Amino acid sequence: MSAYNEWSHSVGMEFFHQPACGFDLDVAASAGIPDVPEIESLVLPSIDEARQLSGGVHLGQHNLFSSEIGARLGFATSLTMAQLLEDCKSQYAVRQESLVDW
User: What global pTM score does this model have?
Assistant: First the structure.
C-alpha cells in the first residue's frame, strides 16, 4: 500500500483507500498509510469495527477519515432518511470527518 501512496504523490495526487476491503491485513496498522483512509457503512457495520480502523487513522496523524455513507445490503433504492441518519450518527461517533453519500 505504501508503494501506491508514494506513486500517487509522484504524479501529484493523493491516495484514497479502504484498507478494510479485499485484503487480509491488519486494518488498524494499514489505515495510517493512505493520505485519506476510507470506510463505508456496507463493509464496517458496527461502531467497534469502525473504531478499530479509526485508531490507525489517528495514530498515522491523518486529519481526514472518509466514509461512503448509506450503503446497506438490500436497501439499494429504499434507504429511509432515518436509516441514513443512523449511519451518519454511528460514523460520527468514530470521528468521521467526511461523509460521502453515493
Answer: 0.62
